[in-house]
Fold this protein.
Amino acid sequence: MLSKEFAFHAPAELDETLALLAESEGIVKVLAGGMSLVPAMNLGLVRPDVVISLNHVPGLDYVEHTGDSVRIGAMVRHHRLVADPLIASSFPLLAAAAALVGDVQIRHRGTIGGSLSHADPAADYLPVIVALGATLKLRSREGERAVRARDFLVDIML
């Protein structure tokens, strides 16, 4: 049961998404796969005024090797982290954690970005990305910044 009405946006471009994030008022949540956000909303634990879906924004579902690191987009689904040979060879701990997320349906719908942004304790990524020394690239209309994983995580579901 959703506990209140909210505005829903499904932008088709990243710049449009960033504008909506900057201009929306109240509690704003970003929807990736929905495997963390939707249950929290159904339980009344999260009551956003605005929900912005990333599901139609291209270019956020990449896994790429960049010399001495691997870049993973926010919209990469859990199952891809399990199956991707680059992740398996470079970060087997991350692939193993992804394999333990939920069930097969959740792994095919949920995203690493959603799990991390909600600090979802049901996903085992949190200690893994801290242990791996990961850095998260955060972007807004004002620009980009890099934040170490250990500094990004504040509390569960925050």
